[in-house]
Amino acid sequence: QAVGWSEVFLNLNDTAWGARSGLDRWRNFVGVSIPLREGVAFEPGYLNQFVNRSAGDQTDHVLSATLNVAF
User: Fold this and answer.
1) How much is the pLDDT for 57?
2) Are 61 and 48 in contact (CB under 8 A)?
3) pLDDT computed for residue 16 by the predictor
4) Strand partners, 7
5) Which residue ranges in the chain fall short of pLDDT 50?
6) d(CA 68, CA 42)
7) What Å distances lie between residue 43 and 2, 17, 67, 71, CA to CA?
8) Looking at residue 69, what is its pLDDT?
């Protein structure tokens, strides 16, 4: 089964320690869900993360593996 998700992190205001208001990071994932047993699935895939930084934006490319357990 194909799996995909996207999540956006927003800062509501600026801080003294450097966080800026607005877009902080944006993560997108694509992969497959492999059922191992009832309520347990292994999800390998690719995660792309864009990080909005004042010193220059950053893009991370990650091979991700997740074990999902429903109980």
Assistant:
1) 83
2) yes
3) 76
4) 27
5) none
6) 6
7) 9, 36, 6, 17
8) 96
Q: Work out whether strand 58-69 and strand 22-32 pair parallel, antiparallel, or are unpaired.
A: unpaired
For 8-57, the DSSP string reads: EEEESS--TTS--SEEEEEEEEEEE-EEEETTEEEEEEEEEEEE--TT--
Q: Which helix (H) or strand (E) holds 6?
A: strand 2-11
Short-list 33, 27, 28, 45, CA closest to 69: 33
pTM: 0.79
Give the residue from 48, 42, 7 showing the smallest Cα distance to 30: 48
Joined tokens for residue 38: 């009832």
